[in-house]
């Protein structure tokens, strides 16, 4: 999972706006980041670390067009080589970055290699760019992007700059709309993974539709519906990934999280509701309100530690958990309802339950605002194999809580308020056909040396 932004500036301020907007979606990826901008010439800067680190001494230039990226870390990739945006200079100068995961990566990579297109990274963003460049050799833009959508399977929200004559912004979203992408205009144009990036500038927010392409060429904005399937928006954006103040497809992330908490069934006598910071706070508030029990902050997180789930290695995730401290007065001799956004590998939950017990809690009842995660995700969230998922292994008891209560599938739908969701990691119903078989093939190829990762 990553975050992307795209700007066509009113003045020559696109790179500055891209920089500040990237900071507002930094929670979507902390491994590396980059900005590519255009004003007659292309400028590309990217590196490992946070936006504030990579761009600390950046001499921001005047540019009309810019795209930017923050990258979500994954195991075994090279953060320098795989940092986005990517750039090619044939048939035009084209820069691109994306959020998502292309599941037929290996097949497409082999196809490109046979045509002597050499990729420099193992990132599917570079692959997407090369497929787009290839299609643009013989086709007009509309046809080229439609062909890209026909050839690439999986999830991708993409932003690009096509530096033909005066240069244009091209953004598009996969036909299922698995990853979010919003846009708005206020004299200039901005597209981003989340509405918070647009809120910052007071820009009204619209969703880029699944299978839609938007082209901004000078002062003209053209929307073209290239392909449409049913919508399958990732439910995990509301549960965990997006910022609480974002609105996706008209559904407020904060309101959804409050409702997720309210929906949780309480079957035990508890004294206090305590959230696992930070994402689960609204759910714990909703839970406490619904069941008439006090809400307390019982766990304090070092704010300089990253988000534990999106950390790329088990070791890093465990280190992040160690940045949590218990406020003993709030748990000692109490029956604690501990509310978390989700239980994926169980790493965090096991350690937190143990911390709260050591601080003197009488009982610890764990609640997950997300239903059981039982199946791998092929579309960009880092839970790729069933053996990594604690619910799938049937080892929930190993967490050590007195009870564990999950959200229901119906409760999740009701809280988000949308029907067209991807919930494949919960129910095994994958929106991209034959995905399981393709994924198995990918895994095979990965074992044989064709490296594939999620972004
Ligand atoms: S499988 Fe789960 S995490 Fe992956 S896109 Fe679908 S809902 Fe999101």
What do these coordinates show?
The protein has 455 residues and is an alpha+beta fold. It has 2 domains: 2-232, Aminohydrolase, N-terminal nucleophile (Ntn) domain (Glutamine Phosphoribosylpyrophosphate, subunit 1, domain 1, 4-Layer Sandwich); 260-416, Rossmann fold, CATH 3.40.50. It is built from 15 helices and 23 strands. The strands form 6 sheets. The chain has a 7-stranded antiparallel sheet. A 6-stranded antiparallel sheet has the order 5-6-7-8-12-13. Helix 4 (124-138) packs across helix 5 (141-151). The radius of gyration is 22 Å and the shape is elongated. The relative contact order is 0.12. The structure holds iron/sulfur cluster. Iron/sulfur cluster (SF4) binds at residues 178, 234-236, 377, 379, 381, 422-425.
Briefly, what is this?
The chain is α+β, with helices and mostly antiparallel strands and about 450 residues long. It has helices at about 15-25, 50-55, 105-115, 125-140, 140-150, 195-200, 235-240, 255-265, 280-290, 315-320, 345-360, 390-395, 410-415, 425, 435-450, and strands spanning about 1-10, 30-40, 40-50, 65-70, 85-90, 95-100, 155-165, 170-175, 180-185, 190, 205, 210-215, 220-225, 235, 245-250, 250, 270-275, 300, 325, 335-340, 365-370, 405, 420. The strands form 6 sheets. Strands 3-2-4-1-10-9-11 form a 7-stranded antiparallel beta sheet.
